[in-house]
Design brief:
alpha/beta; Rossmann fold; UDP-N-acetylmuramoyl-L-alanine:D-glutamate ligase; Protein-Tyrosine Phosphatase, Chain A; 6-stranded mixed β-sheet; 17 helices; about 20% strand
């Protein structure tokens, strides 16, 4: 078998990044995508003279590969993936492949919610401190594409459970686990246990010189690390109690970060990002900065001046006294819980899309308290309607963003908030959550 022959399945951000890096490292590369490849990715593949196919998988060619890099969107139960595994061909993720080609320190962030915010916050801290750092993974470029462009001393990586599933020798220097709540259960045989196990793979290969930062208030994390042998330094963060030893907690309306008995203190009001979930994100990012010996002043300045990320509780406009908020990135129930918890006024909630086995029960109390109407936006809203029909009197079906926004405005009154926070994936009506958020903004601007 030709050990120089790399097969890449999927020609999105992850797959094309892996293809370019592999080509630059001298491999023979073949990219196969069962769907049509976007023009911008075709251009990149052509630029680097990388052979590809679209709209099919040539199984014979693929099964002659020495190693297969699988894009995270392809499920493990796909027939082709099973055939590759049956033949004993190594099947890895793009982050596994990319990590072979850098000696950078890797700060890796995972969890069901808050990953992007914490990743960008951490990158902001390191960059402000003058470190040679890049952000990659599920935000920005793929890790492989960023590395193909230029190596760095530090990478801050947002990593999904799907990427962790294909990780074997990859190792984080600092791992942050924010929370584990039900998400993507359709990809894990509706097993929350399997999904949680994927998140904990971020600890794989870590040693005593590394650090594991985790939320002490998350019962799922605490239950699963209770009897587990964990080699890296364990550094918790919490809102509910003082931490003995290293970690972060709240005292007298201040965040306290204690690393090696060196205390940093910041008022909650000074944080650029407000809300309970953002205190967690700021704590995790702040701890990682202190572990890298970044000055307290740099950390404080960075957590104070950080700009809010697009599509996550993003203020869009106030029209007729009604505020419009774009939370398109809220693709699961727990993210919506955080969003609704942040709302001070009555909410017209735009929700729906591809339901990933959602359990809406954790939202019932918040919805009863804060939501006056639900505008469903998706091809199949049956599950959403069933969940809230006894809680919210007005539930309306829509199939386009323009109609959803216009309907929400009609239902709203001065002082209300119209919140796009879907709790679902976007692929039934939109290209991705960014497309959904951008269409929301366009529809609001047309009003």
């Amino acid at each position: 078998m030709d050990t120089n022959n790399i097969i890449i399945l999927g020609a999105g951000e992850s797959g094309v990044g892996a293809a370019v890096l592999a080509r630059k490292k001298g491999f023979d590369v073949f990219v196969s995508d069962n769907n049509k490849i976007k023009g911008k990715y075709k251009d990149v593949l052509s630029q680097f003279d990388i052979e590809f196919e679209e709209g099919k998988h040539s199984e014979k060619r693929i099964l002659n590969g020495f190693e297969v890099i699988k894009s995270p969107g392809i499920p493990d139960e796909a027939a082709l993936i099973r055939a590759i595994a049956d033949k004993g061909i190594p099947l890895i993720s793009e982050i596994e492949f990319a990590a072979r080609y850098t000696d950078a320190k890797l700060i890796c962030i995972t969890g069901s919610n808050g990953k992007t915010t914490t990743t960008l916050l951490t990158h902001h801290i390191l960059k402000n401190a003058g470190l040679d750092v890049a952000v990659a993974g599920n935000v920005g470029n793929s890790f492989a594409m960023e590395l193909a462009t230029r190596d760095h001393d530090y990478f801050v990586l947002e990593i999904s459970s799907f990427q962790l599933d294909g990780m074997y020798d990859f190792k984080a220097d600092i791992a942050i686990l924010l929370n584990i709540t039900p998400d993507h259960l359709d990809r894990y045989g509706n097993s929350f246990e399997a999904y949680a196990g994927s998140k904990l793979r971020i600890l794989r290969n870590m040693g005593e010189d590394d650090a594991f930062i985790y939320c002490q208030d998350d019962p799922v994390i605490m239950e699963r690390i209770k009897n587990r042998r964990i080699s890296p330094r364990k550094i918790p963060f919490t809102l509910s109690s003082k931490v003995d030893g290293e970690g972060a907690y709240i005292k007298d309306n201040n965040i306290i970060i204690n690393i090696q008995s060196n205390i940093q203190q910041m008022t909650l009001e000074s944080l650029a990002l407000q809300g309970k979930h953002n205190i967690y994100n700021s704590m995790a990012a702040g701890i990682s900065g202190r572990l890298l010996d970044i000055t307290k002043q740099h950390i404080q300045d960075s957590l104070t001046d950080f700009q809010h990320i697009e599509h996550r509780l993003e203020h869009i406009a106030v029209i007729q006294g009604i505020e419009f908020i774009n939370d398109s990135k809220a693709t699961n129930v727990n993210a919506v819980w955080y969003a609704l918890e942040n709302m001070q006024n009555d909410v017209i909630w735009i929700a729906g899309g591809i339901d990933k086995g959602n359990d809406y029960s954790i939202l019932l109390d918040l919805v009863k308290d804060r939501v006056k109407a639900i505008v469903c936006l998706g091809k199949d809203n049956k599950h959403l309607q069933e969940a809230f029909s006894g809680t919210v009197e007005t539930i309306i079906e829509t199939r386009s963003m323009d109609v959803a926004v216009q309907t929400a405005l009609y239902l709203g009154g001065k002082g209300d908030t119209i919140l796009l926070s879907p709790a679902c994936a976007s692929f039934d009506l939109f290209e991705n959550f960014e497309d959904r958020g951008n269409q929301f903004k366009e529809s609001v601007n047309k009003l």
